[in-house]
Amino acid sequence: FNCLSHKMVSMKYRNFSVCLITPPQGLKEVYGKFANLASSQPAIGVCALGGYLLREGISTRIIDADALSLSIKEIIDDLKERPPNLVGIYTHSVNYPVVVKIVEAIKAEKISTKIVLGGPHMNFAQREVLIDLGVDFSVKGEGEETLCELSKYLFDGSKSFDEINGLAFRDVSGEIIVNKPRVRLKALDELPFPAVNLLPDL
User: Looking at residue 75, what is its pLDDT?
Assistant: First the structure.
């Protein structure tokens, strides 16, 4: 799949749904006594992924649990009400303990979905999250093309993901495979605008 070459929205993937999650993370946990001086920023990176997937005709929504101060239970209730085919969780080292709880809750509730982790934490722990959390996939580096290709492979029922650069996964035997890194995007003008319309109204 060449996700960068599509100019027209394909209807083929309209029945495949992706839910991107920005985990809840209080300013106090991040900034401590300086929390009153800090501010939360919109999840633009997650919106960029959403815009890319939407351009490819893949149904996409965002749960900005950080902005809405959602509990783990509220996130899970949302996923149970509208279960996606793929859940993507934005992960960095500060919010990692919350990511662990979300993944454990998804598994405990037996929500039928694949889980992929992406974000800065994958720069040094791409393999480890597969071992420690048992998630299905992890993405290192720029995620637009990788997540797009993964979605299309899953839609087509593929069990082999060896050709998706930037991805780590378990093969059918249970062995962890880390594919070669994805080359940074150069044709930035071809990227769609971030789908900020997927963010909640505050």
Answer: 97
8 Å CB contact between 59 and 105: no
Across 29-159, where does the E strand assignment appear? 59-64, 86-90, 114-118, 137-139
Count CB atoms within 10 A of the CB of residue 30: 13
Strand (E) or helix (H) holding 174: none
Q: Inform me whether the pLDDT recorded for 101 exceeds 70.
A: yes
Question: Can you tell me the distance from the alpha carbon of 67 to that of 10, in angstroms, rounded to the nearest whole number?
Answer: 31
**Cα angle value 124/125/127 (rounded, 5°):** 125
- What is the Cα Rg of the chain in Å? 16
Q: Write down the mean pLDDT value for the chain.
A: 89
The DSSP output letter for 188 is: G
Report the C-alpha dihedral over residues 185, 186, 188, 192, rounded to 10 degrees: -40
Task: Report pTM.
Answer: 0.89
Cα–Cα distance for residue pair 28/47, rounded to 1 Å: 24
Q: How many residues does the chain have?
A: 202
Q: CA–CA separation, 53 vs 40, rounded Å? A: 25
DSSP three-state, residue 129: helix
Closest CA to 42 of 50, 31, 52: 50
CA dist list (Å): 177 to 21, 180, 201? 24, 10, 40
